[in-house]
Amino acid sequence: MKAVAPKAEDPKEDPKDKEAAGRAWAFAAATVASFADWVVASGDNEGLPFVVIDKIETEVFVFDPEGRMTGLAPVLIGLAHGDDSTPGVGDRELSNIRPEERTTPAGRFVAAFGKGPGKEDVLWVDYETAISMHPLRQVTLVDPRERRLSRLNSPTPKDNRITFGCINVPDAFFDEVIRPAFTGTKGVVYILPETRPLDDVFPMFERRPELVAEKAPVKPPPREANGRGRHKAEPG
């Protein structure tokens, strides 16, 4: 399994906050594991590689067609909370997308590599709403005031909301995990909801009973990265 490299913990972090974060991550990871089991058991991925994105913890998990996890990493997602896209948002100039419309929609999407900004391809998640996944290097220099690299490197998901809706991942993760998984094939990207119930977006999924119980504190994996978005060929 490929993940991001370790980083030093923040010495100023409150131990209670750290424990709460550990509990939250443990529950989120268990939910993702249960969801991935369902995907494979039900055949919902149609024998394709798949990705699960947890917007609350701002993490991406990548699985091969048999459900073996091949990598996980932190992500940057849409600035606004919400699970739906504003109709027609994919055809607008970035300057015409209001802050409250900059959501990363929840749902099941068939994804494939395609032309993106510049010379590098992106993984198109939902072309209609112009949601793609791309490496951080495509956007780091667009507006340094956004501090996207430091946001991705931070130990908390609280500052990982900055994009117009697209999904930014660490450069090495994109090159070593995403690209090999989707080269020569399409795949499925599942974006879990944050404001709507999980079974509202994925009605066929049944959460394992043990996930209802409170999880013991588990240290989240280290968050570190290396290294505007819609149909106008601008990364978001």
Features:
236 residues; single chain; disordered C terminus; L,D-transpeptidase catalytic domain-like; alpha/beta; eight-stranded mixed sheet
* Biggest sheet layout: 8 strands, mixed
Order of helices and strands: HEEEEEEEHEEHEH
**How many angstroms separate the termini?**
28 Å
Please name the fourth-level CATH homologous superfamily of one domain.
L,D-transpeptidase catalytic domain-like
If you compute it from the alpha carbons, what radius of gyration comes out, rounded to the nearest whole angstrom?
A: 17 Å
Shape: globular
How are strands sequenced across the largest beta sheet? 3-2-1-10-5-6-7-9
Structural class: alpha/beta
- Any idea of the CATH topology of one domain? L,D-transpeptidase catalytic domain-like
Which percent range describes the beta-strand content?
15-25%
Overall pLDDT metric: 79
